[in-house]
Specification:
This protein is of the alpha/beta class and about 260 residues long. It folds into two domains: about 160 residues, 3-Layer(aba) Sandwich (Rossmann fold); about 90 residues, 2-Layer Sandwich (SIR2/SIRT2 'Small Domain'), CATH 3.30.1600. The chain contains eight helices and nine strands. The protein binds carba-nicotinamide-adenine-dinucleotide (CNA). The site of carba-nicotinamide-adenine-dinucleotide has 28 residues, from loops.
Length: about 260
């Protein structure tokens, strides 16, 4: 990264009033949570199909075991990246964060306007009656019940529709924000952005990965990500292949000398 790129990004952030931030698993690795596609990411442990809707229906117990071990991190705390974004929101710079993360760390850092595009690991819902369970409750059910994933509010005759599914979007699945109204809200944010800030995502999972394309023509895209993304060589795009925490701290120190 050149000093020039860093200065340009700092100036854009200094003058911004409506930054739209798109985040992925990479912003939480500095809180000790593995991402998917880095060398030590979750995909080095298991293939993508374990996190698919098909696998969930076919092997609910194994699915839960994997999800609790790899995607549920109640002990993790927000890091510098999360904290600085929350501060920039308070300062009137960040309009919204649209995250693929399911760890809740943006909200725990104090960010208010957060769209959890891929849902949350904090809760689970019965696909038949809609009864809501906390993941802690699911954990204690796992320890004490054989068919813990069947909703006890429904007749327990083992139909797949009575399964309790974590409130995360799996491969082959959709979530609340995938509705027409949800996507329209997101596209409105993209259209109104002063610029778009991408943090810690490989931008490979659709439809999330398409969002930067909906910013107005000429609106800058800043990407802070260790790995490459398909947008790295786009127009009006500034790329910093560095740690998110370190880079954001440097920028924030420039803003508040
Ligand atoms: P990904 O494909 O694993 O990409 C993460 C990107 O972040 C990679 O390009 C890394 O190079 C980069 N990266 C990792 N650490 C840092 C760092 N400290 N500084 C800068 N860059 C870094 O993950 P995506 O988010 O793109 O993939 C989307 C999936 C991942 C979503 O469905 C999420 O639900 C899912 N996920 C979320 C979490 C979480 O909530 N924390 C954890 C693991 C996976």
């Amino acid at each position: 990264m050149s000093a020039n790129t860093m200065d340009t990004c700092t100036n854009l952030i200094r003058n911004a009033k409506k930054i739209v931030v798109l985040t992925g698993a990479g912003i939480s690795t500095e809180s000790g949570i593995k991402d998917f596609r880095s060398k030590t990411g979750i995909y080095s442990l298991a293939p993508e199909y374990i996190l698919s809707l098909d696998y969930f229906y076919q092997h609910p117990k194994e699915f839960y075991q994997f999800a609790i071990e790899n995607l549920y991190h109640p002990e993790a705390v927000p890091n510098k990246g999360h904290e600085i974004l929350a501060k920039w929101e308070q300062e009137g710079k960040v309009a919204t964060i649209i995250t693929q993360n399911i760890d809740g760390l943006h909200q725990r850092a104090g960010s208010k306007n957060v769209i959890e595009f891929h849902g949350t690991m904090k809760t689970a819902t019965c696909l038949n009656c809609g009864k809501n369970y906390s993941t802690d409750e699911m954990l204690s059910r796992m320890e004490t019940m054989e068919d813990f994933y069947i909703c006890n509010n429904c007749i327990a005759n083992n139909k797949v529709e009575q399964y309790i599914k974590p409130d995360v979007v799996l491969f082959g699945d959709t979530g609340t924000w995938f509705s027409m109204a949800g996507i329209q809200t997101i596209l409105r944010y993209m259209q109104e952005a002063d610029f778009v800030l991408v943090l810690g995502t490989s931008l490979l999972v659709t439809p999330f990965s398409t969002f930067p394309q909906y910013r107005r023509q000429g609106v800058p895209l800043i990407i802070i990500n260790k790995g490459e993304t398909p947008y790295d060589f786009g127009q009006d795009t500034y790329v910093i292949h560095e740690s998110i925490g370190k880079t954001m701290e440097e920028i924030d120190n420039q803003l508040h000398p």
